[in-house]
Amino acid sequence: MERQTLQLSPTESLTTDQQRSAFQVPFGVVANYKLWDGKHFVPYVGLKAGTMFARNTTYYGVKGLYDKAWGGYVSPEIGFNIYPCKNKNWGFHVAGYYSYGTNKTYTLTSEINGQNNAGFRVGVIF
């Protein structure tokens, strides 16, 4: 990011190249519902709910400021498992999800109310 001058208060300003990072760790319970249990294809919908720890850091020059907070967490998802063998002892997993945390943190110049993500997972299950 390019250098910029940040107005910290009416009498303070800082010229720097600001960078931010977010670290999130959710904790909770998971519930999945199989839409149908096929021989090789098993689609499902699921929900994760609990709490999330978040740490947001603003780096400027060689220093950094961080704020950490706990908040609520919810993440619905939809996906499917593919089992190439009849006995279903291994297979492939594909899922899409959205997650939202209610954490409230402050960075150098702004407030972050809630954090959300959307993504997908691809993997091997056994």
What does this structure look like?
With 126 residues, this protein is mainly β. 0% of the residues lie in helices and 79% in strands. It is built from no helices and 7 strands. It has strands at residues 4-9, 12-16, 18-34, 41-60, 63-82, 91-106, 111-125. The strands form 2 sheets. A 5-stranded antiparallel β-sheet has the order 3-4-5-6-7, with no helix packed on it. It has a two-stranded antiparallel ribbon with strand order 1-2. The model has no long low-confidence stretch (mean pLDDT 90).
Could you give a quick summary of the protein structure above?
With 126 residues, this protein is mainly beta. Helices cover 0% and strands 79% of the residues.
> Count the strands?
7
Decide which structural class fits the backbone.
Answer: mainly beta
Spans with pLDDT under 50 lasting ≥5 residues? none
Q: What kind of sheet is the major sheet?
A: 5 strands, antiparallel
Q: Indicate the mean pLDDT.
A: 90
Cross-sheet strand order for the largest sheet:
3-4-5-6-7
Gross morphology is elongated
Q: Topology as H/E string?
A: EEEEEEE
* Portion in helices: under 10%
Tally of contiguous helical segments: 0
Give the N-to-C terminal Cα separation: 43 Å
Measured by DSSP, the beta-strand proportion falls in over 45%
C-alpha Rg, in Å?
Answer: 21 Å
